[in-house]
Specification:
The structure is a single chain. The chain is an alpha+beta fold. The chain is built from 5 helices and 5 strands. The chain has helices at residues 13-24, 31-40, 47-59, 101-114, 130-133; strands spanning 63-67, 73-77, 85-89, 95-98, 124-127. The two termini are 31 Å apart. The relative contact order is 0.15.
């Protein structure tokens, strides 16, 4: 999603501050990192509000969410419209967005075979990027 696009969720003053920080960042960040950046800018937003807003933005697909190997959620403004997946480097954290019709066909086939409808999915593939492998 382009930084100047309006999110699909209801926007409050605190929500706009959160979006501003996300729009300024090139990479993923945790809710705690985002909260610290808000405080450094003099924008008082409670940590619970940050978590709630990030959850809403993720549900609306306005932000991408990645889980670290330790289980921590990291967030960033979505750089690609539409459904996509990620390749993430386990060493440096670099992320590549991937769109693949093959993944969509595979996921639908799995769902069909199990009798599931109205499916959604998120796929994150981890490995070592070319820079780190080097």
């Amino acid at each position: 999603m382009a930084a100047d696009q309006v999110p699909k969720t209801r926007t409050t003053r605190q929500g706009l501050w959160i979006l501003e920080i996300l729009n300024e960042s090139d990479g993923f960040m945790s809710a705690h990192q985002l909260h610290a950046k808000l405080a450094a800018k003099g924008n008082p937003v409670g940590l619970a509000t940050v978590y709630n807003r990030l959850r809403s933005l993720a549900e609306a697909r306005d932000v991408d969410v990645l889980k670290t190997e330790a289980g921590e959620a990291l967030y960033r403004r979505c750089g690609v419209d539409g459904h996509h997946h990620h390749l993430r480097c386990r060493r440096c954290g670099a992320v590549e967005e991937v769109e693949s019709a093959q993944v969509e066909v595979w996921a639908q086939s799995l769902a069909d075979n199990a009798g599931f409808t109205d499916i959604s999915h998120t796929i994150e593939i981890t490995g070592i990027c070319a820079t780190c492998h080097g």
